[in-house]
Specification:
Radius of gyration: 13 Å
Strand content: under 5%
Length: 66
């Protein structure tokens, strides 16, 4: 199943939407810049993706606090 941008935005919780979208942009850029990502195991790929999302969640919380 492929989601379009508007569908994806609708499914994301509003409180974390910008963090997820920002992480998705960074993740997409990372995979384009470093195609060796796809040579990693699915577990390693998942860990990298979750770390990217977590980093953006923290940034989003910090931005809201400022």
């Amino acid at each position: 199943m492929t989601l379009k941008g508007k569908e994806l935005k609708r499914l994301l919780p509003s409180s974390t939407r910008e963090s997820y979208l920002s992480a998705l942009r960074d993740f997409t850029k990372m995979t384009i810049d470093n195609p060796s990502f796809f040579e990693k195991s699915s577990e390693e790929q998942r860990e990298i993706a979750m770390a990217t999302i977590q980093e953006h969640k923290v940034r989003g919380k910090q931005a809201k606090e400022e």
